[in-house]
């Protein structure tokens, strides 16, 4: 006869009662320790499955011992740069004798759901690559480090590249080539997307180009870049001579759409990406891109998380890296008479 699932969190005591054994014997089975017969093991494990029991791994900590596990939350469909960050996190964690537990956020799986799956593990701290939220759910409950955006919460640490400086450098480069009609394919309404859009407006205003700038709604994935490029082309009589994309993924996608329409990069439109990923280097037209250092960002995030776990003294909770612009073939002066 099937065992009825209980409401609320199922405990080891519930499993023992349903299986007709003592809590101590149920614990032996769940820990896969010697001392229980094959038949008892089978019965207890079957009952645990029926009840939906999940061991409370956090309760296994003895005398405050740390697990050396760091949770990592990340998004999907947000560009190839996150894969470089993940690779860097694994390398940095191994260097410090720690392991990572990953949980993804998807369109159908929000931050709370992603955290729920991590709760089965006794992780000591959390590194967030996404979603870029202003108020992480675990802020103040354990060490939390976000990578890529600013958070006001005083118990959250930040490791990021300066979007403000990066955008100023990108706009300065294009302006120095003679461009005035510059567009920004933005990253949507995420925290990072808004920050880069605001930085673009500030940089263009500072250069006296606010009247000739253009904002094009976009996103983070290649499909977003294609759609943004089509929006840009909807008014062919007023095309910009240069554009700055939210990331390399959207920049490369936009370049593909432009090429299909016979618009040359950089002959007709100069393009700047963001992240300086493998995509920028392997693009048929080498993509000028804002350089971020994923390995360094990952190293700093892991070290800051461990510092918090070990309760070391920290002077400033925000680490900001200065970017640089990697120049390739996708930018040049505007066509004559088209600045």
Explain this structure to me?
With 339 residues, the protein is an alpha/beta fold. Helices cover 38% and strands 17% of the residues. A six-stranded parallel beta sheet has the order 2-1-3-4-5-11, with helices on both faces. It has a six-stranded mixed beta sheet with strand order 7-6-8-9-10-12, with helices on both faces. It starts with 11 loop residues before the first helix and ends in a 13-residue tail after the last strand. The mean pLDDT is 90.
List the helices and strands and how they pair.
Blueprint: H1 12-19, H2 23-30, H3 38-51, E1 69-75, H4 81-95, E2 99-105, H5 111-118, E3 125-128, E4 144-147, E5 156-161, H6 163-177, E6 182-185, H7 191-206, E7 214-216, H8 222-233, E8 242-245, H9 248-260, E9 270-275, H10 278-282, E10 288-291, H11 294-309, E11 318-321, E12 324-326
Parallel strand pairs: 1-2, 1-3, 3-4, 4-5, 5-11, 6-7, 6-8, 8-9, 9-10
Antiparallel strand pairs: 10-12
Helix pairs in contact: 1-2, 1-3, 4-11, 6-7, 8-9
Keywords: DNA-binding, Transcription, Transcription regulation
Protein name: LacI family transcriptional regulator
Domain HTH lacI-type: 10-64
User: What is the number of beta strands?
Assistant: 12
Tell me about the biggest sheet?
6 strands, parallel
Architecture (CATH level 2) name of the largest domain: 3-Layer(aba) Sandwich
Rg over CA atoms: 25 Å
User: Could you give the distance between the termini?
Assistant: 78 Å
Strand order within the widest beta sheet: 2-1-3-4-5-11
Summed up, the domain count is 3
Could you report the average pLDDT, rounded to the nearest whole number? 90
Name of the CATH first level of the largest domain = Alpha Beta
The class by helix and strand makeup works out as alpha/beta
- Helix-strand pattern, N to C? HHHEHEHEEEHEHEHEHEHEHEE
CATH-assigned fold name of the largest domain: Rossmann fold
Percent of residues in helices comes to 25-40%
Instruction: List the total number of helices.
Output: 11
What is the global morphology?
A: elongated
Write down the oligomeric state. Answer: single chain
Unreliable stretches (pLDDT < 50, length at least 5) are none
- The CATH superfamily title of the largest domain: Response regulator
Strand content: 15-25%
């Amino acid at each position: 006869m099937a065992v009825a699932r209980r409401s609320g969190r199922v405990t080891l005591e519930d499993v023992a009662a349903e299986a007709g054994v003592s809590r101590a014997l149920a614990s032996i089975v769940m820990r896969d320790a010697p001392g229980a017969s094959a038949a008892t093991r089978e019965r207890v494990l079957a009952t645990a499955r029926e009840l939906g029991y999940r061991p409370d791994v956090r309760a296994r900590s003895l005398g405050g011992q740390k697990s050396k596990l760091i949770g990592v939350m990340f998004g999907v469909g947000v560009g190839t740069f996150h894969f470089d960050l993940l690779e860097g996190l694994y390398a940095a964690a191994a260097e410090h004798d720690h392991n990572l537990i990953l949980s993804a956020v998807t369109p159908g799986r929000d931050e709370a759901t992603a955290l729920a799956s991590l709760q089965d593990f006794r992780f000591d701290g959390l590194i967030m690559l996404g979603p870029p939220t202003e108020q992480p759910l675990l802020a103040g409950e354990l060490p939390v480090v976000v990578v890529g955006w600013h958070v006001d919460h005083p118990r959250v640490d930040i490791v990021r590249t300066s979007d403000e400086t990066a955008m100023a450098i990108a706009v300065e480069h294009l302006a120095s080539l003679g461009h005035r009609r510059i567009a920004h394919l933005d990253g949507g309404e995420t925290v990072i997307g808004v920050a880069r859009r605001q930085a673009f407006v500030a940089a263009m205003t500072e250069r006296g180009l606010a009247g000739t700038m253009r904002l094009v709604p976009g996103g983070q994935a290649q499909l977003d870049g294609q759609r943004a490029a089509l929006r840009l082309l909807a008014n062919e009589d007023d095309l910009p001579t240069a554009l700055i994309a939210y990331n390399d993924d959207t920049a490369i996608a936009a370049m593909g759409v432009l090429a299909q329409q016979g618009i040359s990069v950089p002959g007709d439109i100069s393009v700047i990406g963001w992240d300086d990923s493998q995509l920028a280097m392997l693009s048929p037209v080498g993509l000028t891109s804002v350089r971020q250092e994923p390995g360094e960002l990952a190293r700093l995030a892991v070290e800051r998380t461990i510092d918090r776990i070990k309760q070391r003294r920290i002077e400033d909770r925000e680490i900001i890296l200065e970017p640089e612009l990697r120049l390739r073939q996708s930018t040049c002066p505007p066509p004559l008479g088209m600045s």
